[in-house]
Amino acid sequence: MTRAFVALGSNLGDPRGQLERACEALARLPATQLAARSRLYRTPPWGMTAQPPFLNAVAMLETTLAPNTLLEALLAIERAAGRVRGTERWGPRTLDLDLLHMEETVLDTPELTLPHPRIAERAFVLLPLADLAPDLVLPGLGRVDVLLAGVETQGCVPLA
Question: Taking every annotated instance into account, which residue ranges of this chain make up the domain 7,8-dihydro-6-hydroxymethylpterin-pyrophosphokinase (predicted)?
Fold first, then answer.
């Protein structure tokens, strides 16, 4: 089994419900267990700022799926939630699932880059990731807790 970390985000419809259903779908993936999940965070929109705030979280999976197979499963979960990719970049969405990191895996292909190339810039990813694995070392980037100390977290609020 390999540990994999998946970022979850939503700001349309019922974001809390979308993230709950996404975690349930992650737990049902073949050869995969949902090992842990972070707190939810309400975060300001990133990139395109004229949209509602997001709810974000990170899930830790234990899986034997290959990275591209896991990515395809994440995209299928998004589609089932009504997500249409290819629309506005950084725009509003019912569900966004990003494969952030898989242990012992460094990839840079047109389909998938691991670790995710923008982890170090995004408080909405680093905060929930630090809930689960603050001492995780991301190849080529550093420790999660150190990366988190270097980003602006203003406006990011943990939810009960």
Answer: 89-100
116 contacts 100 by C-beta, under 8 angstroms: yes
CATH number of the domain encompassing residue 34: 3.30.70.560
pTM value is 0.95
98 is catalytic: yes
Can you give the residue range of the structural domain that contains 48? 2-158
- Mean pLDDT over 116-129 rounds to 96
Q: Which of 14, 85, 89, 93 is catalytic?
A: 93
Selecting among 42, 96, 122, 131, the annotated active-site residue is 96
Can you list the alpha helix ranges (DSSP code H) found in the chain?
A: 15-27, 67-80, 123-132, 144-149
93 counts as catalytic = yes
Q: How confident is the model at residue 47 (pLDDT cuts 50, 70, 90)?
A: confident
